[in-house]
Amino acid sequence: MNAMRVARRERVGRVEILWVMAAMCVLVLGLCATRRVQAQTTHSSEVRGAFEVTSLLGRRLYAQPDDDAVTAAKKKLAVDSKNASLVLVLSQAEANRRQYREAVATCTKGLAFAPKNADLYIERGHRELGLREFRSAERDLAHAAALDPTKLDAFYHLGLAHYFQGQFSDAAESFQKACALAKNDDSVIDCTNWLYVSLRRADKKEQAVQALKRIGPAVKNKEAHLLFYLRLEHFYQGSLTEQAVLPAKPVDPNDVEAELSFDTVTYGVGNWRLYNNHDAKGAAALFREVVKGNAWNAWGFVGSEVELARMRTAHAPAQR
Description:
The structure is a single chain. It contains 15 helices and two strands. With 320 residues, it is an all-alpha fold. The protein has a domain at 241-315. Helix 3 runs antiparallel to helix 4 and helix 8 (168-181) runs antiparallel to helix 9. The chain is globular. Mean pLDDT is 89; it is low at 1-8 and 22-46.
Protein backbone atom coordinates (compact mmCIF):
# COMPACT_ATOMS: atom_id res chain seq x y z
CA MET A 1 0.00 0.00 0.00
CA ASN A 2 2.81 2.40 0.92
CA ALA A 3 4.53 1.62 -2.38
CA MET A 4 1.33 2.47 -4.30
CA ARG A 5 1.03 5.80 -2.46
CA VAL A 6 4.64 6.64 -3.26
CA ALA A 7 4.16 5.77 -6.95
CA ARG A 8 0.99 7.88 -7.10
CA ARG A 9 2.77 10.87 -5.52
CA GLU A 10 5.64 10.51 -8.01
CA ARG A 11 3.17 10.48 -10.95
CA VAL A 12 1.39 13.56 -9.59
CA GLY A 13 4.74 15.29 -9.10
CA ARG A 14 5.77 14.55 -12.67
CA VAL A 15 2.46 15.90 -13.99
CA GLU A 16 2.87 19.09 -11.94
CA ILE A 17 6.40 19.56 -13.28
CA LEU A 18 5.16 19.11 -16.86
CA TRP A 19 2.40 21.72 -16.29
CA VAL A 20 4.93 24.19 -14.87
CA MET A 21 7.27 23.62 -17.82
CA ALA A 22 4.40 24.09 -20.30
CA ALA A 23 3.35 27.32 -18.60
CA MET A 24 6.91 28.62 -18.73
CA CYS A 25 7.11 27.81 -22.46
CA VAL A 26 3.89 29.70 -23.11
CA LEU A 27 5.22 32.68 -21.15
CA VAL A 28 8.52 32.68 -23.05
CA LEU A 29 6.77 32.43 -26.42
CA GLY A 30 4.47 35.29 -25.45
CA LEU A 31 7.42 37.49 -24.48
CA CYS A 32 9.19 36.70 -27.76
CA ALA A 33 6.09 37.57 -29.77
CA THR A 34 5.71 40.84 -27.87
CA ARG A 35 9.32 41.74 -28.57
CA ARG A 36 8.89 40.93 -32.27
CA VAL A 37 5.83 43.21 -32.47
CA GLN A 38 7.71 45.97 -30.62
CA ALA A 39 10.69 45.60 -32.97
CA GLN A 40 8.44 45.74 -36.02
CA THR A 41 6.66 48.81 -34.66
CA THR A 42 9.97 50.53 -33.96
CA HIS A 43 11.26 49.66 -37.44
CA SER A 44 8.07 50.99 -39.03
CA SER A 45 8.30 54.29 -37.19
CA GLU A 46 11.93 54.65 -38.29
CA VAL A 47 11.10 54.06 -41.95
CA ARG A 48 7.96 56.20 -42.11
CA GLY A 49 7.75 59.73 -40.82
CA ALA A 50 4.80 62.06 -40.39
CA PHE A 51 1.69 62.05 -42.55
CA GLU A 52 2.05 64.73 -45.21
CA VAL A 53 -0.88 64.72 -47.61
CA THR A 54 -3.62 62.60 -49.16
CA SER A 55 -2.98 62.19 -52.87
CA LEU A 56 -5.52 63.16 -55.53
CA LEU A 57 -6.27 59.43 -55.79
CA GLY A 58 -6.92 59.02 -52.04
CA ARG A 59 -3.57 57.52 -51.02
CA ARG A 60 -2.04 58.72 -47.75
CA LEU A 61 1.51 59.95 -48.33
CA TYR A 62 4.17 60.07 -45.64
CA ALA A 63 7.49 61.75 -44.99
CA GLN A 64 10.69 60.09 -43.89
CA PRO A 65 12.03 60.72 -40.37
CA ASP A 66 14.71 63.31 -39.59
CA ASP A 67 18.25 62.55 -40.65
CA ASP A 68 21.53 64.17 -39.57
CA ALA A 69 21.12 66.98 -42.10
CA VAL A 70 17.75 68.03 -40.66
CA THR A 71 19.03 67.82 -37.09
CA ALA A 72 22.13 69.89 -37.89
CA ALA A 73 20.10 72.51 -39.81
CA LYS A 74 17.67 72.90 -36.92
CA LYS A 75 20.53 73.43 -34.47
CA LYS A 76 22.16 76.10 -36.65
CA LEU A 77 18.90 77.96 -37.18
CA ALA A 78 18.16 77.87 -33.45
CA VAL A 79 21.39 79.80 -32.86
CA ASP A 80 20.74 82.33 -35.65
CA SER A 81 16.96 82.33 -36.07
CA LYS A 82 16.76 85.42 -38.35
CA ASN A 83 19.14 84.08 -40.98
CA ALA A 84 17.22 83.52 -44.24
CA SER A 85 20.01 81.38 -45.70
CA LEU A 86 19.76 78.99 -42.76
CA VAL A 87 15.98 78.88 -43.20
CA LEU A 88 16.53 77.72 -46.77
CA VAL A 89 19.04 75.09 -45.67
CA LEU A 90 16.57 73.67 -43.15
CA SER A 91 13.66 73.71 -45.60
CA GLN A 92 15.71 71.89 -48.24
CA ALA A 93 16.93 69.34 -45.69
CA GLU A 94 13.33 68.70 -44.63
CA ALA A 95 12.22 68.42 -48.24
CA ASN A 96 14.96 65.85 -48.89
CA ARG A 97 13.14 63.71 -46.31
CA ARG A 98 9.78 64.46 -48.01
CA GLN A 99 8.82 66.59 -45.02
CA TYR A 100 7.01 69.05 -47.23
CA ARG A 101 4.56 70.44 -44.67
CA GLU A 102 7.45 71.07 -42.33
CA ALA A 103 9.41 72.74 -45.15
CA VAL A 104 6.47 75.04 -45.98
CA ALA A 105 6.14 75.98 -42.30
CA THR A 106 9.88 76.69 -42.11
CA CYS A 107 9.68 79.02 -45.12
CA THR A 108 6.63 80.78 -43.70
CA LYS A 109 8.55 81.55 -40.51
CA GLY A 110 11.42 82.90 -42.59
CA LEU A 111 9.14 85.10 -44.68
CA ALA A 112 7.80 86.67 -41.49
CA PHE A 113 11.16 88.46 -41.07
CA ALA A 114 12.30 88.43 -44.73
CA PRO A 115 9.11 89.21 -46.72
CA LYS A 116 10.97 90.25 -49.88
CA ASN A 117 13.19 87.19 -50.14
CA ALA A 118 12.43 85.66 -53.55
CA ASP A 119 14.31 82.45 -52.73
CA LEU A 120 12.04 81.73 -49.78
CA TYR A 121 8.96 82.18 -51.97
CA ILE A 122 10.48 79.86 -54.60
CA GLU A 123 11.28 77.26 -51.96
CA ARG A 124 7.81 77.44 -50.39
CA GLY A 125 6.10 77.28 -53.78
CA HIS A 126 8.26 74.30 -54.77
CA ARG A 127 7.14 72.35 -51.70
CA GLU A 128 3.50 73.37 -52.11
CA LEU A 129 3.62 71.72 -55.53
CA GLY A 130 4.64 68.47 -53.85
CA LEU A 131 1.71 68.85 -51.45
CA ARG A 132 -0.65 69.22 -54.46
CA GLU A 133 -1.44 72.78 -53.34
CA PHE A 134 -1.08 74.09 -56.88
CA ARG A 135 -2.90 77.40 -56.50
CA SER A 136 -0.91 78.36 -53.41
CA ALA A 137 2.26 77.42 -55.26
CA GLU A 138 1.20 79.55 -58.23
CA ARG A 139 0.74 82.60 -55.98
CA ASP A 140 4.09 82.15 -54.24
CA LEU A 141 6.02 81.52 -57.43
CA ALA A 142 4.42 84.40 -59.33
CA HIS A 143 5.35 86.65 -56.42
CA ALA A 144 8.93 85.33 -56.48
CA ALA A 145 9.16 86.02 -60.22
CA ALA A 146 7.88 89.57 -59.65
CA LEU A 147 10.41 90.14 -56.86
CA ASP A 148 13.31 88.88 -58.99
CA PRO A 149 12.68 88.25 -62.72
CA THR A 150 16.19 86.77 -63.10
CA LYS A 151 15.31 83.65 -61.10
CA LEU A 152 15.02 80.69 -63.48
CA ASP A 153 13.62 78.48 -60.71
CA ALA A 154 10.73 80.89 -60.12
CA PHE A 155 9.53 80.60 -63.73
CA TYR A 156 10.29 76.87 -63.93
CA HIS A 157 8.21 75.99 -60.89
CA LEU A 158 5.53 78.52 -61.83
CA GLY A 159 5.28 76.64 -65.12
CA LEU A 160 4.72 73.41 -63.19
CA ALA A 161 2.02 75.07 -61.06
CA HIS A 162 0.16 76.08 -64.22
CA TYR A 163 0.81 72.74 -65.91
CA PHE A 164 -0.59 70.62 -63.09
CA GLN A 165 -3.72 72.78 -63.10
CA GLY A 166 -4.19 72.15 -66.80
CA GLN A 167 -3.29 75.75 -67.73
CA PHE A 168 -1.02 74.65 -70.55
CA SER A 169 -0.63 77.95 -72.43
CA ASP A 170 0.30 79.75 -69.21
CA ALA A 171 2.69 76.91 -68.38
CA ALA A 172 4.36 77.26 -71.78
CA GLU A 173 4.80 81.00 -71.25
CA SER A 174 6.52 80.42 -67.90
CA PHE A 175 8.77 77.67 -69.27
CA GLN A 176 9.69 79.91 -72.22
CA LYS A 177 10.93 82.51 -69.73
CA ALA A 178 12.81 79.83 -67.81
CA CYS A 179 14.46 78.61 -71.04
CA ALA A 180 15.54 82.16 -71.84
CA LEU A 181 17.36 82.27 -68.49
CA ALA A 182 19.08 78.89 -68.94
CA LYS A 183 22.86 79.23 -68.76
CA ASN A 184 23.98 75.63 -69.27
CA ASP A 185 22.94 72.41 -71.00
CA ASP A 186 21.39 70.91 -67.86
CA SER A 187 19.00 73.85 -67.51
CA VAL A 188 18.25 73.85 -71.24
CA ILE A 189 17.38 70.13 -71.12
CA ASP A 190 15.20 70.52 -68.03
CA CYS A 191 13.25 73.59 -69.17
CA THR A 192 12.87 72.45 -72.79
CA ASN A 193 11.22 69.19 -71.77
CA TRP A 194 8.44 71.00 -69.93
CA LEU A 195 8.15 73.73 -72.54
CA TYR A 196 7.68 71.12 -75.26
CA VAL A 197 5.01 69.11 -73.44
CA SER A 198 3.19 72.28 -72.34
CA LEU A 199 3.00 73.46 -75.95
CA ARG A 200 1.84 70.03 -77.12
CA ARG A 201 -0.87 69.93 -74.47
CA ALA A 202 -1.88 73.46 -75.52
CA ASP A 203 -2.28 72.19 -79.13
CA LYS A 204 0.63 74.30 -80.36
CA LYS A 205 2.52 71.55 -82.16
CA GLU A 206 4.58 73.72 -84.51
CA GLN A 207 5.83 75.89 -81.66
CA ALA A 208 6.67 72.73 -79.71
CA VAL A 209 8.75 71.39 -82.60
CA GLN A 210 10.59 74.71 -82.78
CA ALA A 211 11.31 74.64 -79.04
CA LEU A 212 12.79 71.17 -79.35
CA LYS A 213 15.32 72.34 -81.94
CA ARG A 214 17.42 73.69 -79.08
CA ILE A 215 18.25 70.06 -78.20
CA GLY A 216 20.92 69.40 -80.80
CA PRO A 217 23.57 66.62 -80.89
CA ALA A 218 26.02 68.78 -78.91
CA VAL A 219 23.66 69.15 -75.93
CA LYS A 220 24.78 66.80 -73.15
CA ASN A 221 23.72 66.48 -69.54
CA LYS A 222 26.11 66.73 -66.59
CA GLU A 223 23.69 65.93 -63.78
CA ALA A 224 22.81 62.23 -63.97
CA HIS A 225 19.06 62.61 -63.49
CA LEU A 226 18.78 65.00 -66.46
CA LEU A 227 19.67 62.12 -68.77
CA PHE A 228 16.04 61.02 -68.27
CA TYR A 229 14.74 64.26 -69.77
CA LEU A 230 17.35 64.24 -72.54
CA ARG A 231 16.32 60.73 -73.60
CA LEU A 232 12.68 61.81 -73.56
CA GLU A 233 13.54 64.73 -75.82
CA HIS A 234 15.30 62.37 -78.22
CA PHE A 235 12.14 60.26 -78.14
CA TYR A 236 10.04 63.34 -78.97
CA GLN A 237 12.41 64.05 -81.88
CA GLY A 238 11.96 60.51 -83.17
CA SER A 239 15.51 59.28 -82.64
CA LEU A 240 14.44 56.84 -79.90
CA THR A 241 11.45 54.48 -79.95
CA GLU A 242 9.00 54.10 -77.10
CA GLN A 243 10.39 50.64 -76.35
CA ALA A 244 13.96 51.97 -76.29
CA VAL A 245 13.24 54.90 -73.99
CA LEU A 246 10.99 53.22 -71.41
CA PRO A 247 13.03 52.06 -68.38
CA ALA A 248 12.47 48.84 -66.46
CA LYS A 249 10.46 49.13 -63.26
CA PRO A 250 12.77 49.37 -60.21
CA VAL A 251 13.26 46.10 -58.34
CA ASP A 252 14.45 47.76 -55.13
CA PRO A 253 11.79 50.10 -53.65
CA ASN A 254 14.57 52.04 -51.90
CA ASP A 255 16.45 52.81 -55.14
CA VAL A 256 15.44 56.48 -55.39
CA GLU A 257 17.43 57.18 -58.55
CA ALA A 258 15.90 54.22 -60.40
CA GLU A 259 12.40 55.22 -59.36
CA LEU A 260 12.99 58.83 -60.38
CA SER A 261 14.09 57.63 -63.81
CA PHE A 262 11.10 55.32 -64.10
CA ASP A 263 8.59 57.97 -63.02
CA THR A 264 10.02 60.70 -65.24
CA VAL A 265 10.21 58.70 -68.44
CA THR A 266 7.09 56.61 -67.94
CA TYR A 267 5.02 59.72 -67.31
CA GLY A 268 6.62 61.37 -70.34
CA VAL A 269 5.71 58.45 -72.62
CA GLY A 270 2.20 58.22 -71.17
CA ASN A 271 1.75 61.95 -71.73
CA TRP A 272 3.01 61.52 -75.33
CA ARG A 273 0.32 58.89 -75.87
CA LEU A 274 -2.29 61.43 -74.76
CA TYR A 275 -1.35 64.31 -77.02
CA ASN A 276 0.09 62.34 -79.94
CA ASN A 277 -2.12 59.27 -80.33
CA HIS A 278 -5.10 60.27 -78.18
CA ASP A 279 -4.54 56.91 -76.49
CA ALA A 280 -6.04 57.59 -73.04
CA LYS A 281 -6.24 53.88 -72.17
CA GLY A 282 -2.58 53.25 -72.96
CA ALA A 283 -1.54 56.42 -71.15
CA ALA A 284 -3.52 55.47 -68.04
CA ALA A 285 -1.83 52.06 -67.94
CA LEU A 286 1.57 53.77 -67.71
CA PHE A 287 0.38 56.36 -65.19
CA ARG A 288 -0.96 53.62 -62.92
CA GLU A 289 2.45 51.95 -62.88
CA VAL A 290 4.06 55.22 -61.77
CA VAL A 291 1.70 55.88 -58.85
CA LYS A 292 2.36 52.44 -57.40
CA GLY A 293 5.80 53.68 -56.36
CA ASN A 294 6.98 55.64 -53.33
CA ALA A 295 8.62 58.73 -54.87
CA TRP A 296 5.41 60.74 -54.51
CA ASN A 297 7.28 64.06 -54.75
CA ALA A 298 8.70 63.34 -58.24
CA TRP A 299 7.14 65.43 -61.02
CA GLY A 300 6.43 62.30 -63.05
CA PHE A 301 4.52 60.89 -60.09
CA VAL A 302 2.57 64.11 -59.56
CA GLY A 303 1.80 64.37 -63.28
CA SER A 304 0.60 60.75 -63.45
CA GLU A 305 -1.59 61.27 -60.41
CA VAL A 306 -3.09 64.47 -61.83
CA GLU A 307 -3.94 62.79 -65.14
CA LEU A 308 -5.51 59.75 -63.49
CA ALA A 309 -7.59 62.05 -61.26
CA ARG A 310 -8.77 63.98 -64.33
CA MET A 311 -9.70 60.75 -66.08
CA ARG A 312 -11.62 59.59 -63.02
CA THR A 313 -13.53 62.88 -62.89
CA ALA A 314 -14.28 62.75 -66.63
CA HIS A 315 -15.77 59.26 -66.30
CA ALA A 316 -17.66 59.90 -63.07
CA PRO A 317 -21.49 59.79 -63.41
CA ALA A 318 -23.09 63.23 -63.61
CA GLN A 319 -24.70 64.53 -60.42
CA ARG A 320 -28.47 65.03 -60.61
